[in-house]
Amino acid sequence: MEAINIQATEETPKIICDVKGKISVTGKSLTEDPIAFYHPIHDWASKMDSENVVLDLSLDYMNTASSKQIFTLIELVKKNKAKKQFTVNWYYEANDEDALDVGKEFESLLEIPFNFIAHS
Question: How do 22-29 and 114-119 pair as beta strands?
């Protein structure tokens, strides 16, 4: 399995999927076709064979359609049979209560603990 490294654009986040089990999604996700954009990342996450997975999510903004794809990404990692330990780090602007609320909702719906990390 090969690593994925997608550079950020004005509408899409930077995504790194490391073969050692680290997935990083950073920036803005405003893509008009999030299903097509996130499909290779979802496919990679469902097939990875890492026992220890760390998912770093640091999105300045995501539209509703993208949030569904981020939720699906977390869900796919959670269901991956190879993983034994799964850490979700949810980074958000210290004054952005909406971003924190989205993370807390995902945490509740997926029934896995998130690490919430505020930054300025």
Answer: unpaired
CATH of the domain at 51: 3.30.750.24
Question: What pLDDT, on the 0 to 100 scale, is given for residue 120?
Answer: 82
Residue 41 identity (one-letter amino acid): I
pTM of the model: 0.96
| CA–CA gap between residue 51 and residue 15 (Å, rounded) | 20
Contact partners, residue 37, CB within 8 Å, separation at least 6: 12, 31, 69
Q: Are 26 and 13 in contact (CB under 8 A)?
A: yes
How far, in Å, CA of 76 to CA of 43, rounded? 9
What is the domain range of residue 59? Answer: 4-119
Q: How many domains does the chain have?
A: 1
